[in-house]
Design goal:
The chain is 31% helix and 43% strand. The protein is built from four helices and seven strands.
C-alpha cells in the first residue's frame, strides 16, 4: 500500500476552499492536468455522486470514475476510484485557523493486480511522483481560492 500525505495552507476561509475542492465540473478551468470532468449523477454533489475525470498523470492521459464518499461542508471531502489495477482513496481535511485554511491531503493506494503490486513493490519513484503531482494540484487549488476570494 502506498500512502501520501501533503499539507497546504490557503489564505481563504474553509467554506471557499470547500467550494473549490467540490467544483468537479469546473476543475478543468483551474486544474492544468484535468482536461475533462463530468458529474455523472446530476448536478448536485452528494455522497455517492460519481465524477468522471480525464487527466494527465506522469505524462499519460487517464480517465477515472471517482465516487464521492464523504462531504462535510467546510470540513472534509473524500473520493475513491479504481484504475490501472489500483484502488485509491483520496481525502481532504480542512482546518480553519481564523484567517485561512490548512488542507491535509491523504492518498491511500492499494494495488489489486499483480502488475500494480509489482510497480508499487519496486517503487519506481511512485511516491515522489504522487507527492509532486499532489503538491502541484494544491498550488492550483490555492490560486483558484485566492482568485475567487479577490472577486468576492
Amino acid at each position: 500500500m502506498l500512502e501520501v500525505n501533503v499539507s497546504t495552507y490557503i489564505d481563504a476561509p474553509a467554506a471557499l476552499v470547500y467550494a473549490v475542492l467540490t467544483d468537479f465540473a469546473g476543475a478543468p478551468r483551474f486544474m492544468s492536468k484535468i482536461s475533462r470532468s463530468d458529474i455523472l449523477d446530476g448536478k448536485k454533489m452528494a455522497v455517492g455522486t460519481r465524477v468522471r475525470q480525464t487527466r494527465t498523470l506522469s505524462g499519460r492521459e487517464i480517465t477515472c470514475t471517482y465516487r464521492v464518499t464523504a462531504l462535510d461542508v467546510a470540513q472534509q471531502v473524500a473520493i475513491e476510484t479504481e484504475a490501472s489495477g489500483v484502488f485509491c482513496k483520496i481525502g481532504w481535511r480542512l482546518t480553519p485557523d481564523g484567517r485561512g485554511t490548512t488542507i491535509a491531503t491523504r492518498i491511500l493506494a492499494e494495488p489489486k493486480t499483480t502488475a500494480a503490486r509489482t510497480v508499487m513493490m519496486l517503487g519506481l519513484g511512485l511516491r515522489g511522483a504522487v507527492e509532486r503531482a499532489t503538491e502541484a494540484e494544491m498550488v492550483e487549488v490555492r490560486a483558484e481560492c485566492e482568485r475567487r476570494k479577490a472577486l468576492a
